[in-house]
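User: Fold this; tokens only.

Assistant: Input:
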Amino acid sequence: MNGGNAGAAKTEALFACEGVVKTYAGEPVVAGISLELSKGGFISLLGPSGVGKTTLFNVLAGVDTPDEGKIFLAGEDITGVSGRVSYMLQKDLLLEYRTVLDNVILPLLIRGEKKREAREYGAAFFPHFGLAGYEKKYPRQLSGGMRQRAALLRTCMMRNPVILLDEPFSALDAITRRQMQEWYRDIAQEMSLSTIFITHDVEEALVLSDRVYILTGRPGRISRRLDVLPPRPRSHDFPVSAEFSVQKRIILEAIGL
């Protein structure tokens, strides 16, 4: 269960980055970052604050261009091209003056789709996201977990094969957070989403991921890669299993805890 996990199955990457370096104000923030995500896969980036995880996400999403390195989607070089992968920030960023449905369909309207058709298309997903009956409500009328589900649905409306999630559940209470983890695990499988996930939570990374990349140092580098066992789907008892505890200890040691 160390870097490379001898015997782990090798799959063709849907999304990958190779040798990414990003510098700000003359200081390297991340260096030599290479990772890959298989179709339908789930990988987590885990590490202490200030190690460059969000900077890396900005590069992966095409919001920033790397100083060195390349980004690939299905073998196509998309380095510095935005809009090819979906990106949800830590805050839900819902517009308080728009209904939940009209928040959700914003990506469709930006692409030029007519509002009526966009509303019909977006509303069809509300039951899957636990939002049925809330189409005409406003964000202030939703719980924290419901706001995050609405924000995730809006992100999915971009219709991209890869979704980047930057600590989407970190502001929720522990019980709601666990519920959201289980919900997203199921919805990602149902919708065949391929996910890259930033978290500071070791347990969250293990529960959700196929693979965990651990970033440490300044500039941030991948210091370890852990292929989580057993493979998904996993038993609900996994978080209390001996195998979970062993892998949690490996990660904690890798980040110096």
